[in-house]
Amino acid sequence: MSQGSMAPGIAAGRLDSATLAENFQDLHPPYAPHEAAVAADRCYFCYDAPCVTACPTDIDIPLFIRQISTGQPEAAAQTIFEQNILGGMCARVCPTETLCEEACVREAAEGKPVEIGRLQRFATDTLMARDVHPFTRAAPTRKRVAVVGAGPAGLACAHRLAMLGHDVVIHEGRDKAGGLNEFGIAAYKSTNNFAASEVDWLMQIGGITMKTGVRLGDGLALASLQQEFDAVFLSVGLAGVNALRADGDDKDGVGDAVDFIADLRQADDLTTLPVGRDVVVIGGGMTAIDAAVQSRLLGAENVTVAYRRSRARMGASRFEQDLAASKGVKLMFNVQPVAVHGNGAAREVELAYTVEDGDGALTPTGETVRIKADQVWRAIGQTLQGSPDGLDIDGGKIAVSEAGRTSLHGVWAGGDCASGGDDLTVTAVAEGRDAAMDIHARLTNTG
Predict the structure, then answer these.
(1) What is the topology classification, in CATH, of domain 144-239+384-443?
(2) What is the structure's pLDDT at 422?
(3) Handedness of CA 181, 184, 190, 196 (dihedral sign)
(4) Which of the four CATH numbers 3.40.50.12280, 2.40.50.140, 3.50.50.60, 3.30.1370.10 does domain 241-378 have?
(5) What is the mean pLDDT of residues 224-246?
(6) What is the predicted pLDDT for the residue at 447?
(7) Is 90 exceeded by the pLDDT of residue 131?
(8) What is the rounded radius of gyration, in angstroms, for the C-alpha atoms of the chain?
(9) What average pLDDT does this structure show over 178-198?
(10) Boundaries of every domain in the chain
(11) Mean of per-residue pLDDT scores for the chain
(12) CATH pick for 33-128 out of 1.10.1060.10, 1.10.468.10, 3.40.50.1450, 3.50.50.60
Protein backbone atom coordinates (compact mmCIF):
# COMPACT_ATOMS: atom_id res chain seq x y z
CA MET A 1 0.00 0.00 0.00
CA SER A 2 0.98 3.62 -0.14
CA GLN A 3 0.81 5.61 3.04
CA GLY A 4 -2.19 7.42 1.63
CA SER A 5 -4.52 4.39 1.91
CA MET A 6 -5.46 5.62 5.40
CA ALA A 7 -5.97 2.27 7.13
CA PRO A 8 -7.65 2.49 10.56
CA GLY A 9 -5.24 3.94 13.09
CA ILE A 10 -3.41 6.01 10.47
CA ALA A 11 -4.21 9.71 10.38
CA ALA A 12 -2.83 13.02 9.13
CA GLY A 13 -2.36 16.12 11.22
CA ARG A 14 -1.35 14.47 14.49
CA LEU A 15 0.78 17.55 15.20
CA ASP A 16 0.23 21.19 14.30
CA SER A 17 2.34 22.95 11.69
CA ALA A 18 4.42 24.89 14.24
CA THR A 19 5.42 21.70 16.07
CA LEU A 20 6.23 19.95 12.81
CA ALA A 21 8.38 22.87 11.67
CA GLU A 22 10.34 22.63 14.91
CA ASN A 23 10.64 18.84 14.66
CA PHE A 24 12.00 18.94 11.12
CA GLN A 25 14.47 21.78 11.52
CA ASP A 26 18.10 21.37 10.43
CA LEU A 27 19.73 18.43 12.25
CA HIS A 28 23.17 20.09 12.23
CA PRO A 29 22.74 23.88 12.11
CA PRO A 30 25.37 25.68 10.01
CA TYR A 31 28.37 27.30 11.64
CA ALA A 32 28.58 31.04 12.03
CA PRO A 33 31.94 32.40 10.76
CA HIS A 34 33.40 32.68 14.27
CA GLU A 35 32.31 29.13 15.14
CA ALA A 36 33.92 27.84 11.94
CA ALA A 37 37.18 29.61 12.75
CA VAL A 38 37.27 28.09 16.25
CA ALA A 39 36.43 24.60 14.91
CA ALA A 40 39.09 24.89 12.17
CA ASP A 41 41.76 25.81 14.73
CA ARG A 42 41.35 22.37 16.31
CA CYS A 43 42.79 20.68 13.21
CA TYR A 44 46.38 19.42 13.49
CA PHE A 45 46.80 19.78 9.68
CA CYS A 46 48.37 16.31 9.57
CA TYR A 47 50.86 15.75 6.75
CA ASP A 48 49.72 12.17 6.17
CA ALA A 49 46.15 12.86 7.20
CA PRO A 50 44.08 9.73 7.95
CA CYS A 51 40.88 11.72 7.34
CA VAL A 52 41.78 12.06 3.65
CA THR A 53 42.31 8.31 3.33
CA ALA A 54 38.89 7.77 4.91
CA CYS A 55 37.13 10.10 2.46
CA PRO A 56 35.74 8.22 -0.58
CA THR A 57 36.22 11.34 -2.74
CA ASP A 58 39.79 12.03 -1.50
CA ILE A 59 39.15 15.64 -0.53
CA ASP A 60 42.26 17.36 0.83
CA ILE A 61 40.67 17.95 4.22
CA PRO A 62 43.63 19.56 6.01
CA LEU A 63 44.03 22.01 3.14
CA PHE A 64 40.42 23.16 3.08
CA ILE A 65 40.33 23.49 6.88
CA ARG A 66 43.53 25.57 6.79
CA GLN A 67 41.91 27.76 4.14
CA ILE A 68 38.94 28.30 6.47
CA SER A 69 41.24 29.09 9.38
CA THR A 70 42.99 31.76 7.30
CA GLY A 71 39.69 33.40 6.32
CA GLN A 72 39.35 31.90 2.84
CA PRO A 73 36.14 29.80 2.92
CA GLU A 74 35.56 30.21 -0.81
CA ALA A 75 39.02 28.82 -1.57
CA ALA A 76 38.19 25.97 0.81
CA ALA A 77 35.02 25.28 -1.16
CA GLN A 78 37.01 25.22 -4.40
CA THR A 79 39.29 22.58 -2.87
CA ILE A 80 36.24 20.51 -1.92
CA PHE A 81 34.39 20.89 -5.22
CA GLU A 82 37.41 19.88 -7.27
CA GLN A 83 37.02 16.40 -5.79
CA ASN A 84 33.32 16.34 -4.91
CA ILE A 85 30.97 18.58 -6.86
CA LEU A 86 28.14 17.55 -4.49
CA GLY A 87 30.20 18.51 -1.46
CA GLY A 88 27.36 20.65 -0.15
CA MET A 89 24.95 17.73 0.14
CA CYS A 90 27.64 15.34 1.34
CA ALA A 91 28.44 17.77 4.15
CA ARG A 92 24.84 17.33 5.29
CA VAL A 93 24.22 13.60 4.79
CA CYS A 94 27.60 11.87 4.74
CA PRO A 95 28.13 9.59 7.78
CA THR A 96 31.26 11.51 8.75
CA GLU A 97 31.19 9.86 12.16
CA THR A 98 32.23 6.56 10.55
CA LEU A 99 34.47 8.03 7.84
CA CYS A 100 36.69 11.13 8.08
CA GLU A 101 35.78 12.12 11.63
CA GLU A 102 36.26 8.60 12.97
CA ALA A 103 39.77 8.66 11.45
CA CYS A 104 40.55 12.13 12.85
CA VAL A 105 43.60 12.23 15.15
CA ARG A 106 41.62 14.40 17.57
CA GLU A 107 39.07 11.59 17.83
CA ALA A 108 41.80 9.10 18.77
CA ALA A 109 43.44 11.48 21.23
CA GLU A 110 40.42 13.15 22.85
CA GLY A 111 37.29 11.33 21.72
CA LYS A 112 36.13 14.53 20.00
CA PRO A 113 37.05 14.88 16.33
CA VAL A 114 37.29 18.04 14.30
CA GLU A 115 33.76 18.57 12.96
CA ILE A 116 34.82 18.09 9.35
CA GLY A 117 31.29 17.76 7.97
CA ARG A 118 30.09 21.05 9.45
CA LEU A 119 33.27 22.81 8.28
CA GLN A 120 32.71 21.43 4.79
CA ARG A 121 29.16 22.75 4.85
CA PHE A 122 30.36 26.19 6.00
CA ALA A 123 32.78 26.39 3.08
CA THR A 124 30.46 25.07 0.37
CA ASP A 125 27.48 27.12 1.54
CA THR A 126 29.62 30.27 1.49
CA LEU A 127 30.64 29.78 -2.13
CA MET A 128 27.26 28.54 -3.35
CA ALA A 129 25.57 31.62 -1.84
CA ARG A 130 27.43 33.71 -4.44
CA ASP A 131 25.42 31.82 -7.10
CA VAL A 132 28.50 31.81 -9.35
CA HIS A 133 29.74 28.50 -10.61
CA PRO A 134 33.41 27.90 -9.71
CA PHE A 135 34.31 25.96 -12.88
CA THR A 136 34.36 26.73 -16.59
CA ARG A 137 34.06 24.34 -19.51
CA ALA A 138 37.00 23.23 -21.59
CA ALA A 139 36.92 23.65 -25.36
CA PRO A 140 34.17 21.56 -26.99
CA THR A 141 35.19 18.01 -27.92
CA ARG A 142 32.11 17.37 -30.09
CA LYS A 143 31.58 14.13 -28.15
CA ARG A 144 28.15 13.34 -26.70
CA VAL A 145 27.52 11.23 -23.61
CA ALA A 146 24.21 9.91 -22.29
CA VAL A 147 23.75 9.69 -18.54
CA VAL A 148 20.80 7.61 -17.34
CA GLY A 149 19.72 8.67 -13.87
CA ALA A 150 20.07 12.07 -12.21
CA GLY A 151 21.14 10.87 -8.79
CA PRO A 152 24.50 11.66 -7.16
CA ALA A 153 26.55 9.39 -9.46
CA GLY A 154 24.87 10.64 -12.63
CA LEU A 155 25.14 14.29 -11.67
CA ALA A 156 28.80 13.96 -10.69
CA CYS A 157 29.59 12.14 -13.93
CA ALA A 158 27.68 14.67 -16.04
CA HIS A 159 29.35 17.66 -14.42
CA ARG A 160 32.87 16.31 -14.82
CA LEU A 161 32.24 15.38 -18.48
CA ALA A 162 30.73 18.81 -19.20
CA MET A 163 33.68 20.49 -17.53
CA LEU A 164 35.99 18.51 -19.82
CA GLY A 165 34.16 19.83 -22.89
CA HIS A 166 31.74 17.01 -23.70
CA ASP A 167 28.02 17.48 -24.28
CA VAL A 168 25.86 15.50 -21.86
CA VAL A 169 22.20 14.53 -21.90
CA ILE A 170 20.80 13.25 -18.60
CA HIS A 171 17.75 10.98 -18.79
CA GLU A 172 15.84 10.87 -15.51
CA GLY A 173 12.79 8.71 -14.84
CA ARG A 174 11.20 10.96 -12.23
CA ASP A 175 9.88 14.45 -12.84
CA LYS A 176 12.69 16.00 -10.80
CA ALA A 177 16.46 15.45 -10.67
CA GLY A 178 18.45 14.56 -7.57
CA GLY A 179 17.82 10.86 -7.01
CA LEU A 180 18.19 9.83 -3.38
CA ASN A 181 19.35 13.33 -2.46
CA GLU A 182 15.92 14.60 -3.48
CA PHE A 183 13.67 11.65 -2.66
CA GLY A 184 15.46 9.33 -0.25
CA ILE A 185 17.06 11.32 2.58
CA ALA A 186 15.40 12.38 5.81
CA ALA A 187 13.92 15.87 5.57
CA TYR A 188 15.77 17.10 8.67
CA LYS A 189 19.11 16.34 6.99
CA SER A 190 18.46 18.45 3.88
CA THR A 191 16.25 21.45 4.54
CA ASN A 192 15.12 24.46 2.52
CA ASN A 193 14.94 22.57 -0.78
CA PHE A 194 18.72 22.28 -0.85
CA ALA A 195 18.86 19.21 -3.12
CA ALA A 196 17.02 20.98 -5.95
CA SER A 197 19.05 24.15 -5.47
CA GLU A 198 22.27 22.15 -5.66
CA VAL A 199 21.20 20.60 -8.98
CA ASP A 200 20.43 24.04 -10.42
CA TRP A 201 23.81 25.30 -9.24
CA LEU A 202 25.63 22.28 -10.72
CA MET A 203 23.91 22.77 -14.08
CA GLN A 204 25.46 26.23 -14.38
CA ILE A 205 28.57 24.57 -15.80
CA GLY A 206 26.69 24.40 -19.12
CA GLY A 207 26.76 21.63 -21.69
CA ILE A 208 24.23 19.48 -19.79
CA THR A 209 20.67 18.86 -20.98
CA MET A 210 18.20 17.38 -18.47
CA LYS A 211 15.34 15.20 -19.73
CA THR A 212 12.92 14.10 -17.00
CA GLY A 213 10.14 11.51 -17.16
CA VAL A 214 12.31 9.24 -19.32
CA ARG A 215 13.02 5.79 -17.91
CA LEU A 216 15.27 3.01 -19.19
CA GLY A 217 13.11 0.16 -20.45
CA ASP A 218 10.05 2.39 -20.73
CA GLY A 219 10.49 4.22 -23.99
CA LEU A 220 14.25 4.46 -23.56
CA ALA A 221 16.45 1.64 -24.88
CA LEU A 222 20.11 1.17 -24.07
CA ALA A 223 20.83 0.00 -27.62
CA SER A 224 19.43 3.26 -29.01
CA LEU A 225 21.55 5.29 -26.60
CA GLN A 226 24.64 3.38 -27.70
CA GLN A 227 23.91 4.26 -31.31
CA GLU A 228 23.13 7.92 -30.65
CA PHE A 229 25.90 8.75 -28.15
CA ASP A 230 29.63 8.21 -27.95
CA ALA A 231 29.35 6.76 -24.44
CA VAL A 232 26.67 5.87 -21.89
CA PHE A 233 26.81 6.08 -18.11
CA LEU A 234 24.15 4.19 -16.13
CA SER A 235 23.23 5.44 -12.68
CA VAL A 236 19.72 4.06 -12.42
CA GLY A 237 19.74 3.32 -8.69
CA LEU A 238 17.81 0.47 -7.11
CA ALA A 239 14.10 0.90 -7.78
CA GLY A 240 12.85 -2.42 -6.41
CA VAL A 241 12.22 -3.17 -2.74
CA ASN A 242 12.77 -6.59 -1.21
CA ALA A 243 9.66 -8.43 -0.09
CA LEU A 244 8.88 -8.86 3.60
CA ARG A 245 8.32 -12.59 3.15
CA ALA A 246 5.89 -12.70 6.02
CA ASP A 247 2.20 -13.51 6.13
CA GLY A 248 0.04 -10.40 5.95
CA ASP A 249 2.55 -8.40 3.92
CA ASP A 250 -0.33 -7.20 1.72
CA LYS A 251 -2.50 -5.80 4.50
CA ASP A 252 -3.49 -2.14 4.62
CA GLY A 253 -0.96 -0.19 6.61
CA VAL A 254 2.05 -2.07 5.19
CA GLY A 255 4.25 -0.18 2.74
CA ASP A 256 7.76 0.63 1.57
CA ALA A 257 9.84 3.00 3.66
CA VAL A 258 11.38 4.55 0.55
CA ASP A 259 7.94 5.63 -0.67
CA PHE A 260 7.12 7.11 2.72
CA ILE A 261 10.36 9.10 2.76
CA ALA A 262 9.84 10.29 -0.82
CA ASP A 263 6.28 11.42 -0.07
CA LEU A 264 7.49 13.29 3.00
CA ARG A 265 10.34 14.96 1.12
CA GLN A 266 7.98 16.21 -1.58
CA ALA A 267 5.18 17.32 0.73
CA ASP A 268 4.40 21.03 0.81
CA ASP A 269 2.43 20.66 4.05
CA LEU A 270 3.57 18.09 6.62
CA THR A 271 0.20 18.23 8.38
CA THR A 272 -1.29 16.36 5.39
CA LEU A 273 0.96 13.31 5.86
CA PRO A 274 -0.75 10.33 7.49
CA VAL A 275 1.10 8.38 10.16
CA GLY A 276 0.11 5.57 12.51
CA ARG A 277 -0.02 5.64 16.27
CA ASP A 278 2.05 2.45 16.50
CA VAL A 279 4.67 2.20 13.75
CA VAL A 280 7.08 -0.69 13.15
CA VAL A 281 9.95 -0.43 10.68
CA ILE A 282 11.51 -3.67 9.49
CA GLY A 283 15.20 -3.28 8.65
CA GLY A 284 18.50 -2.02 9.97
CA GLY A 285 19.94 0.47 7.48
CA MET A 286 19.85 4.23 7.12
CA THR A 287 16.45 4.06 5.38
CA ALA A 288 14.97 2.22 8.36
CA ILE A 289 16.27 4.82 10.80
CA ASP A 290 15.14 7.73 8.61
CA ALA A 291 11.63 6.25 8.31
CA ALA A 292 11.42 5.55 12.03
CA VAL A 293 12.64 8.96 13.19
CA GLN A 294 10.40 10.81 10.76
CA SER A 295 7.38 8.74 11.83
CA ARG A 296 8.07 9.84 15.39
CA LEU A 297 8.53 13.47 14.33
CA LEU A 298 5.18 13.36 12.52
CA GLY A 299 3.46 12.37 15.75
CA ALA A 300 3.52 8.56 16.00
CA GLU A 301 3.24 7.58 19.66
CA ASN A 302 5.24 4.35 19.50
CA VAL A 303 7.87 3.60 16.88
CA THR A 304 9.98 0.44 16.76
CA VAL A 305 12.82 -0.59 14.48
CA ALA A 306 13.01 -4.39 14.25
CA TYR A 307 16.29 -5.75 12.90
CA ARG A 308 17.01 -9.44 12.38
CA ARG A 309 20.68 -9.31 13.43
CA SER A 310 22.70 -7.84 16.29
CA ARG A 311 23.34 -4.15 16.90
CA ALA A 312 26.93 -4.59 15.69
CA ARG A 313 25.70 -5.82 12.30
CA MET A 314 23.26 -2.96 11.79
CA GLY A 315 23.86 -0.98 8.60
CA ALA A 316 22.94 2.32 10.24
CA SER A 317 25.81 3.91 12.12
CA ARG A 318 25.85 4.09 15.90
CA PHE A 319 25.27 7.85 15.59
CA GLU A 320 22.07 7.18 13.64
CA GLN A 321 20.99 4.53 16.14
CA ASP A 322 21.56 6.94 19.02
CA LEU A 323 19.70 9.69 17.15
CA ALA A 324 16.71 7.38 16.77
CA ALA A 325 16.80 6.46 20.44
CA SER A 326 17.00 10.14 21.42
CA LYS A 327 13.78 10.75 19.47
CA GLY A 328 11.97 7.96 21.32
CA VAL A 329 12.41 5.15 18.79
CA LYS A 330 12.76 1.67 20.27
CA LEU A 331 15.43 -0.53 18.67
CA MET A 332 14.93 -4.29 18.69
CA PHE A 333 17.71 -6.64 17.59
CA ASN A 334 17.77 -10.31 16.60
CA VAL A 335 14.10 -10.35 15.62
CA GLN A 336 12.59 -11.05 12.21
CA PRO A 337 8.98 -10.72 11.00
CA VAL A 338 6.79 -13.79 10.93
CA ALA A 339 3.42 -12.23 10.20
CA VAL A 340 1.41 -9.04 10.14
CA HIS A 341 -1.87 -9.66 11.96
CA GLY A 342 -5.16 -7.84 11.55
CA ASN A 343 -8.53 -8.12 9.85
CA GLY A 344 -7.67 -6.56 6.49
CA ALA A 345 -5.48 -3.89 8.06
CA ALA A 346 -2.37 -4.16 10.21
CA ARG A 347 -2.94 -4.41 13.96
CA GLU A 348 0.13 -6.30 15.20
CA VAL A 349 3.47 -7.55 13.94
CA GLU A 350 4.66 -10.96 15.09
CA LEU A 351 8.45 -11.22 15.41
CA ALA A 352 10.58 -14.31 15.92
CA TYR A 353 13.75 -14.07 18.00
CA THR A 354 16.91 -15.20 16.21
CA VAL A 355 20.43 -16.32 16.98
CA GLU A 356 23.33 -15.83 14.59
CA ASP A 357 26.21 -18.27 14.14
CA GLY A 358 29.78 -17.39 13.20
CA ASP A 359 29.00 -17.66 9.48
CA GLY A 360 26.15 -15.19 9.69
CA ALA A 361 23.35 -17.74 9.38
CA LEU A 362 20.20 -16.93 11.35
CA THR A 363 18.19 -19.48 13.28
CA PRO A 364 14.86 -18.80 15.03
CA THR A 365 14.96 -19.58 18.75
CA GLY A 366 11.34 -20.70 18.75
CA GLU A 367 10.29 -17.70 20.84
CA THR A 368 8.08 -15.00 19.31
CA VAL A 369 6.63 -11.69 20.39
CA ARG A 370 3.75 -9.58 19.12
CA ILE A 371 3.79 -5.79 19.16
CA LYS A 372 1.07 -3.32 18.21
CA ALA A 373 1.42 -1.91 14.69
CA ASP A 374 -1.12 -0.04 12.62
CA GLN A 375 1.62 1.02 10.19
CA VAL A 376 4.51 -1.18 9.02
CA TRP A 377 7.36 0.03 6.82
CA ARG A 378 9.56 -2.32 4.82
CA ALA A 379 13.18 -1.14 4.82
CA ILE A 380 14.96 -4.38 4.05
CA GLY A 381 17.01 -3.46 1.03
CA GLN A 382 16.42 -2.47 -2.56
CA THR A 383 17.02 -4.29 -5.82
CA LEU A 384 17.92 -3.53 -9.42
CA GLN A 385 14.97 -3.43 -11.78
CA GLY A 386 14.92 -3.81 -15.54
CA SER A 387 18.59 -4.48 -16.23
CA PRO A 388 19.20 -4.26 -20.01
CA ASP A 389 20.26 -7.38 -21.89
CA GLY A 390 23.99 -7.85 -22.32
CA LEU A 391 25.04 -6.43 -18.97
CA ASP A 392 26.76 -8.83 -16.59
CA ILE A 393 25.23 -8.90 -13.12
CA ASP A 394 27.17 -9.40 -9.90
CA GLY A 395 25.29 -9.87 -6.64
CA GLY A 396 22.11 -8.38 -8.06
CA LYS A 397 23.89 -5.28 -9.38
CA ILE A 398 25.53 -4.29 -12.66
CA ALA A 399 29.03 -5.75 -12.72
CA VAL A 400 31.71 -3.11 -13.24
CA SER A 401 35.47 -2.83 -13.25
CA GLU A 402 37.23 -0.37 -10.98
CA ALA A 403 36.62 2.53 -13.37
CA GLY A 404 32.94 1.67 -13.82
CA ARG A 405 33.26 -0.14 -17.13
CA THR A 406 30.50 -2.69 -17.74
CA SER A 407 30.52 -5.80 -19.91
CA LEU A 408 29.18 -3.71 -22.82
CA HIS A 409 31.67 -1.64 -24.81
CA GLY A 410 31.08 2.07 -24.37
CA VAL A 411 28.80 1.63 -21.35
CA TRP A 412 29.80 2.56 -17.78
CA ALA A 413 27.81 2.34 -14.54
CA GLY A 414 28.08 3.73 -11.02
CA GLY A 415 26.16 4.48 -7.86
CA ASP A 416 23.84 2.09 -6.07
CA CYS A 417 23.09 0.09 -9.25
CA ALA A 418 26.75 -0.92 -9.71
CA SER A 419 28.63 -3.65 -7.89
CA GLY A 420 31.15 -2.80 -5.18
CA GLY A 421 31.32 0.18 -2.86
CA ASP A 422 29.00 1.41 -0.15
CA ASP A 423 25.49 2.69 -0.81
CA LEU A 424 26.40 6.24 0.18
CA THR A 425 26.00 9.58 -1.59
CA VAL A 426 29.71 10.30 -1.27
CA THR A 427 30.66 6.91 -2.76
CA ALA A 428 28.27 7.44 -5.67
CA VAL A 429 29.84 10.84 -6.36
CA ALA A 430 33.30 9.28 -6.43
CA GLU A 431 32.15 6.55 -8.81
CA GLY A 432 30.48 9.04 -11.16
CA ARG A 433 33.52 11.31 -11.17
CA ASP A 434 35.97 8.45 -11.78
CA ALA A 435 33.82 6.97 -14.54
CA ALA A 436 33.73 10.38 -16.21
CA MET A 437 37.51 10.54 -16.21
CA ASP A 438 37.68 7.06 -17.73
CA ILE A 439 35.09 7.98 -20.37
CA HIS A 440 37.04 11.13 -21.18
CA ALA A 441 40.27 9.15 -21.57
CA ARG A 442 38.52 6.68 -23.88
CA LEU A 443 36.85 9.36 -26.01
CA THR A 444 40.03 11.44 -26.37
CA ASN A 445 42.38 8.46 -26.79
CA THR A 446 44.42 9.53 -23.78
CA GLY A 447 43.98 6.42 -21.69
Answers:
(1) FAD/NAD(P)-binding domain (3.50.50)
(2) 78
(3) positive
(4) 3.50.50.60
(5) 93
(6) 66
(7) no
(8) 22
(9) 95
(10) 33-128, 144-239+384-443, 241-378
(11) 94
(12) 1.10.1060.10
What gap in Å lies between CA 37 and CA 298, rounded to an integer?
A: 36
Please, which pLDDT band fits residue 4 given cuts at 50, 70 and 90?
very low
Question: What count of Cα atoms within 13 Å lies in the side-chain half-sphere of residue 195?
Answer: 25
Task: Tell me the residue type at 327.
Answer: K
Q: Are domains 144-239+384-443 and 241-378 of this chain identical in fold?
A: yes
Question: HEC string of the chain?
Answer: CCHHHCCCCEECCCCCHHHHHHHCCCCCCCCCHHHHHHHHCCCCCCCCCHHHHHCCCCCCHHHHHHHHHCCCHHHHHHHHHHHCCCHHHHHHHCCHHHCHHHHCHHHHHHCCCCCHHHHHHHHHHHHHCCCCCCCCCCCCCCCEEEEECCCHHHHHHHHHHHHCCCEEEEEECCCCCCCHHHHCCCCCCCCCCHHHHHHHHHHHHCCEEEEECCEECEEECHHHHHHHCCEEEECCCCCEECCCCCECCCCECEEEHHHHHHHHHHCCCHHHCCEECEEEEECCCHHHHHHHHHHHHHCCCEEEEECCCCHHHCCCCHHHHHHHHHCCEEEECCEEEEEEECCCECCEEEEEEEEECCCCCEEEEEEEEEEECCEEEECCCEECCCCCCCCCEECCEECCCCCCECCCCCEEECHHHECCCCCCHHHHHHHHHHHHHHHHHHHCCCC
Is 90 exceeded by the pLDDT of residue 420? no
Dump pLDDT digits (tens) for 49-58: 999 999 999 9
**Environment class of 272 (CB within 10 Å of its CB; exposed 0-12, middle 13-18, buried 19+):** exposed
pLDDT higher than threshold 50 for residue 1:
no
Residue type for position 156? A
